[in-house]
Amino acid sequence: MSDATKSPGQIALAWWKRNLRPDEDTGPARALRARLRRADRVTDVLAEGRVIELHNLLGRADPLTLAALAQVLAHVERHDGQRIARAFGAGDPKALSPLRFQRLIRSDDRQELATGLRRALPLIGRFCNVAALAEDILFWGEKPRIRWCFDYYGVAPPREGAAGEETE
Q1: What pLDDT digit, counting tens, does each position of 72-105 carry?
Q2: Could you tell me the CA-to-CA distances from 82 to 2, 42, 48, 57, 126 in Å, in that order?
Q3: For strand 78-79 and strand 127-128, is the pairing parallel, antiparallel, or unpaired?
Q4: How many CB atoms lie within 10 A of CB 105?
């Protein structure tokens, strides 16, 4: 599959595997993860050549969104098929309290979202579906928020247009 036919999530997952979590964990990969995790400013993240590579692969993402994505991905240790909100809602009590989850999904800007995610990832063992997480960060808005709510409670979201079908 060429990069032109890959989704942004698949592109971010491939970048994550190649640069942050290669099969053989190398010194450069560990160093890049550490620099991204410790970065205090957006420019610290964007000064990394590998992050600019991700920018080019994604088709020139917004710089603030790109920085948020790179920092969050530096905190993910393992790719798993489970979406992050589903992992947050797992267990009794839930891995992420309902109050913290509500605060997270109310995040209006991606930097606020990234900070919340970086703080919450240790609660679920630092694993999730990297491709799905990347797309959610890149396209953060009402649709991902709604899906996260259903994922958190372990319920399949309603199909789009289902409400109109019921009233007819």
Answers
A1: 999 999 999 999 999 999 999 999 999 999 999 9
A2: 25, 29, 29, 24, 12
A3: parallel
A4: 17
